Amino acid sequence: MDKALIVSAAKTVDNLGSQQHCLALEEAIREMGETIVELVIEPLRTDWHSPEQENHFRSGCAPIEALARAKQLIEAGSNAVLISGEDLLKSGYAREERLARMSIYGDDYPLTDAYNDLASHFLKVHDRSDEHFKEIARALFDNYKLSYRNALADEFSPELLPGDKWYQPITGLFRGVDCANPLVDFSGRILICNEQLADQLKVPASERVEVKAVGLGRTEGDGQGYIDQIACYEHLKQAYDSCCEHADFDFPSRFKNGEALLEAYTCYPVVPMAFLLISGLVDVLDEIPEFLESHSITVTGGMNLARAPWNNPALNGLITMHHRLLEGAEKYGLVHGNGGLGYRQGVALLEKY
Hints:
A hairpin with a 2-residue loop joins strand 1 and strand 2. The chain has a single domain, classed as 3-Layer(aba) Sandwich (Peroxisomal Thiolase, Chain A, domain 1). Strands 1, 2, 3, 4, 5, 6, 7, 8, 9 and 10 form a ten-stranded mixed beta sheet that branches. The chain contains 13 helices and ten strands. It is an alpha/beta fold. It is globular. GO terms for molecular function: acyltransferase activity. It comes from Neptuniibacter caesariensis. This is Acetyl-CoA acetyltransferase.
């Protein structure tokens, strides 16, 4: 069975960065007469409630679902697959249009209310108070800040952090910094090939990352009527277990030993809390703050700081993870995706070639 190898991953954010390496490889592949199957992460402009077209993916889980499809295509005989996502959230929409398109549950049920309701139900499931939740949310954001600072290194400036107003409550459970809604122009792409084509392209082994395994799970539906199902996160456990079992991989031990990196999905605190629990990194919610003191759960700084819009945060996470694995000592990287209010879940394991 052919290995699915990421041979290039690139992005631009607000016109900073370059995708030239990936574009050059794509051109070289086409000049060989090979076909590149293109998988598209849909932008905010696409109607959330419209049917999904073939090889088009929607929601925050879309990049993980696209990666699962890419791996499937390579193993079935395709030579090259491109995953691309672009959303010009800052420059491509009037404010009114942007807000209207983000109201995916209707004008009477904004996302902030949906997040708050899900968090409340999650707390009931785990028999914890609002104060417990807020304490963990603060610890999570502190963890993102440290990762963000490390990711930027010499380019970091305190001016890049949110202003004071974002630390104020916007609902009973959330501050502005706890919810991610990045207003940026983003474009990213990941090129995946089989080994034979990677050899023909003369991509060095040191620049290849294997898509080792991908697990997916979802509930019957999304939104207010499915909060009970979502808050139990059995479908996240299904996705995580499927990924780790397929790769025969003990993620908690590898992560705690420093062999693996993690990019948890951080759109609002319930999601990384649920991931830390179902992954076995912690046993109960109360352990999370102490765990976060010594373990970074993102390589980017999370959606709250690293900034990739709408359906693209996990694409941004996959691109960053690819580069971290090429540059660092760790061998594995796990990337999590969360779709809608949480009805779609995906987990992808990458391994240094």
